[in-house]
Amino acid sequence: MAVNEPSAGHADHDELWLVAYAAGDLPDPERIAAEELVRSCPDCARLVEELRLIRAATASLPAPRRRRDFRLTADDAARLRPRGWRRLLVPLAGPRFAFTQPLAAGLVTIGIAVLLLTTVPGSLSESASAPAPMAGGAPTESAADKVAPLAGVEAAPSEGAGVPSEVPSEGPPAVAPLGPAGALGTAPTAEPAPAGSEPAPSAAVAAPVAPAPAPSEGARSLTAQPSAQEAAGRAAEAAGAPPLPLLATLLLVAGIGLFVLRWGARRLART
Amino acid sequence: MVPDPDQASDAVQEAFFSAYRNFGSFRGGSVRSWLSRIAINAAMDAQRARKRRPVQPYPELEDEAWQPPAGEESDPEQVAVAVERTRALAQALARIGDDQRTAIVLFDVEGYDYAEIADLTGVSLGTVKSRIHRGRLALRALLRDRMELFRG
Fold it and tell me: pLDDT tens, A83-102?
């Protein structure tokens, strides 16, 4: 820029600087300096004038003749606009919904992983799914609590039944939880003991018969009670937090659904 | 931007084909500027192809493509000067550098501003300005002896 002194010859003047001036691209201080130069140097004035003439000519050049108008008319737009359910689906194909693909992949992955961990039996499922041991632990404890009173109840009738003789009444309650077979097995061995006393045989006969139904009921309740407890536990889980496998299945279905929606939308958008 | 109308048509076709193929890479934003970028790239490719395989366009077709709008002046001399000026300018534009011509046509003919041209052609604002300025200087050097056409 130092060469742009009006005193220097035109050959030393910066023509590009003058182009910028002619185009109006110079900041104010430089513009004023350029104006000064143009006033003092006739060649510079001519250059600026010719640049402006050429600029005006290029600006008024007819736009190259378009052989085809690619703009859409209102009719085209109406014809191309998707209708009905396609209208709902097609926006999904747009770049704004590009995130659905990684999201769907993530949902499906998490769904499959959780489903595998919770449904495959073994320590993996118990250690992996934190709420499962809690849910499983509570019912078994309460089942044990329930079993104990039941055993007490069981013992009470058998004691009541075995009131005439002390020995048989003691035997069956002890083996009651083992099942009717044990009760029946102990009763005959107990029979020879009270054989000496007269009323004993009848009581002994009554004793094995009476306790027998009780242990069998107890045994049934022993096996039935935990499953009922589990069902109750599941019901409680369903009421509170949904169980993990159900949640995983939902995630899986949602992920696959997203995939299908996006894929379908892209296919639609392509036609 | 592409002086030969047939090659320009080819470039437009190439641009639309390229846009269709690469629709998946469209990342939102303005469709107009995305499509313009593709078209400008296609035009630049056409220029490179023209350099490799020079063609001789039919002169009469070329003249037809650059007809100025008629009607404003019925004076035959004025019309003749306007036609000649347009022809001279078109020839000069065809002889300057591709980058300079692209920038000048986008700015003067298509009416984009510097920032838009920088975005469309993928260069900096300073480069756009420099290309336009150098292009204008080159045009002036080419048209120096014919300036009487522009003074009417």
Answer: 777 777 777 777 778 888 88
